[in-house]
């Protein structure tokens, strides 16, 4: 494959800067929610469609991970900045021509779309939480030897590391190598997002590539959108007039990727404005799907599903029918779209432009949005037995942790040190019937520690392995059970389409087409 990652395994991040080479990031943030809408849509025509999941790419990247409680579902939606399909093959030339997106040589494996879709088990209002792609975060496990970076980069670093390992092992099947490397990327990205958001369980994921956005827009077009005032941009091809208007698939690409307007500089576009555009487009798409009768049209539904099969990957645990039934209200507007705030812009030690965030604020907002019990509430302590292993060179850390957890009501059965293996990432392993205890333990330690099932752990037991990234919360800190922390930041919203300079956290409610900058 000319120009594939297997010929050049260190290629992962497209060059930063303006110009045509950034075009194919085009539909990046709209990609993810399109996939979720496809899943929700399938519930309407399920009985008329046969072999729905046949041909879908599935992944075991979430095997062994603890899930949400109370029937809630959290789905991480990842949109890759890639000009390749799910098997690593080039796209048809007519697609490249239509998108003005370069070719398979462009792009990479950054997860330029990161959205957490929270669907409550009780049918109450869902939330779609957009994570700005350039947020500067810790990367659990230090993929490819990188321990801090932009949140979107976890996937690409882990992909490249695995790609080189497979080549060194002599694996010759390119599809097999692509999928194994992507699974490594998926795991790293999921772990990074989970830790960043405070240990929020990730029950499922949906991964889409660039072409999915364009192809679904082709099926559904024309699509109605709304902007607050005239705007145009030669880089993206955007040229929109104030108010409501109908656009085709190519115009949709321009709509979701515009982030500048030199003709109207007072608009002061940023990446966050583009995120708002993408959220607005998803709402418009859902509206079009419902109002246009797509849900009652098996042929059109099949077209959408065929696109999903070509350019979408799902985790193997996702039961599409069950989710479709649970999420059927999404297309009726029962979802709020939110973009997490940033504190300030700056430079990383590598000189990259990044977003710096207030981590406590982020985690408080997320906890409030997805209905996590407030940190000040008292939660019953699970009865599982907990062992602690210190795999760092910091003497006494296990004993300090024992004292901290005992004060929160946990039963500590053993404390030890592993001098042979120095781990970078802390992890909580649990045996049968101990998932709740493992999640509670993670919450008590601040919520940022990955939780994994382990068949070698005895039933009813949990093991905390302390890695180099471990930070013991301050006295009285941590999450549930017991203890208290500063109350989460109140989630404020701005009227949809208010056109303010800072889209920040302002929520957009689904159901009607919003006007945006």
From TrEMBL:
The keyword Membrane applies. This is Transcriptional regulator. It comes from the Bacteria. Residues 486-496 have a biased composition (Low complexity). Keywords: Membrane, Transmembrane, Transmembrane helix. The lineage of its organism: Bacteria, Bacillati, Actinomycetota, Actinomycetes, Pseudonocardiales. Residues 111-290 form the Cell envelope-related transcriptional attenuator domain. Residues 476-517 are annotated as: Disordered. Residues 476-485, 497-510 have a biased composition (Gly residues). Residues 384-470 form the LytR/CpsA/Psr regulator C-terminal domain. Belongs to the LytR/CpsA/Psr (LCP) family. Signal peptide: none annotated. The chain crosses the membrane at residues 29-46.
């Amino acid at each position: 494959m000319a120009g594939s990652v297997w010929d050049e395994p260190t290629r992962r991040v497209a060059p930063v800067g303006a110009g045509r080479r950034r075009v194919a990031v085009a539909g990046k943030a709209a990609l993810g929610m399109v996939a979720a809408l496809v899943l929700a849509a399938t519930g309407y025509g399920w009985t008329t469609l046969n072999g729905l999941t046949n041909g879908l790419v599935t992944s075991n990247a979430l095997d062994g991970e603890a899930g949400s409680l109370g029937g809630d579902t959290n789905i991480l939606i990842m949109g890759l900045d890639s000009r390749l399909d799910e098997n690593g093959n080039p796209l048809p030339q007519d697609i490249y021509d239509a998108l003005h997106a370069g070719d398979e040589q462009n792009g990479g494996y950054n997860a330029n779309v990161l959205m957490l879709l929270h669907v409550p088990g009780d049918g109450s209002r869902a939330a779609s939480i957009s994570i700005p792609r350039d947020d500067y975060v810790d990367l659990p496990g230090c993929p490819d030897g990188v321990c801090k970076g932009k949140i979107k980069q976890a996937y690409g670093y882990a992909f490249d590391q695995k790609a080189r390992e497979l080549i060194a092992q002599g694996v010759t099947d390119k599809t097999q190598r692509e999928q194994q490397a992507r699974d490594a990327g998926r795991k790293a990205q999921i772990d990074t997002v989970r830790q960043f958001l405070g240990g929020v369980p990730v029950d499922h994921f949906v991964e889409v590539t660039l072409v999915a956005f364009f192809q679904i827009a082709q099926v559904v077009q024309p699509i109605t959108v709304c902007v607050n005032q005239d705007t145009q941009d030669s880089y993206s091809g955007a040229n929109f007039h104030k108010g409501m208007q109908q656009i085709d698939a190519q115009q949709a690409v321009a709509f979701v990727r515009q982030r500048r307007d030199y003709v109207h500089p007072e608009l002061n576009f940023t990446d966050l404005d583009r995120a708002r555009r993408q959220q607005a487009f998803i709402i418009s798409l859902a509206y079009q799907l419902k109002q246009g009768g797509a849900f009652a049209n098996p042929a059109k539904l099949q077209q959408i599903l065929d696109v999903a099969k070509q350019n979408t990957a799902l985790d193997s645990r996702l039961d599409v029918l069950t989710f479709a039934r649970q999420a059927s209200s999404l297309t009726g507007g029962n979802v709020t779209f939110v973009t997490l705030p940033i504190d300030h812009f700056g430079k990383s030690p590598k000189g990259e432009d990044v977003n710096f965030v207030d981590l406590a604020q982020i985690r408080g907002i997320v906890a409030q949005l997805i209905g996590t019990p407030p940190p000040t509430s008292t939660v019953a302590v699970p009865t599982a037995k907990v062992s602690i292993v210190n795999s760092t060179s910091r003497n006494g850390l296990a004993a300090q942790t024992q004292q901290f957890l005992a004060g929160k009501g946990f039963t500590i059965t053993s404390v030890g040190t592993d001098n042979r293996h120095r781990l970078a990432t802390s992890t909580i392993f649990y045996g049968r019937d101990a998932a709740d205890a493992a999640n509670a333990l993670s919450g008590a330690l601040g919520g940022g520690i990955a939780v994994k099932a382990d068949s070698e752990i005895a039933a009813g037991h949990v093991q905390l392995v302390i890695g180099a990234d471990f930070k013991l919360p301050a006295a009285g800190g941590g999450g549930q059970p017991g203890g208290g922390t500063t109350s989460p930041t109140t989630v404020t919203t701005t009227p949809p389409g208010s056109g303010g300079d800072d889209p920040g956290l302002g929520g957009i409610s689904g159901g009607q087409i919003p006007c945006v900058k």
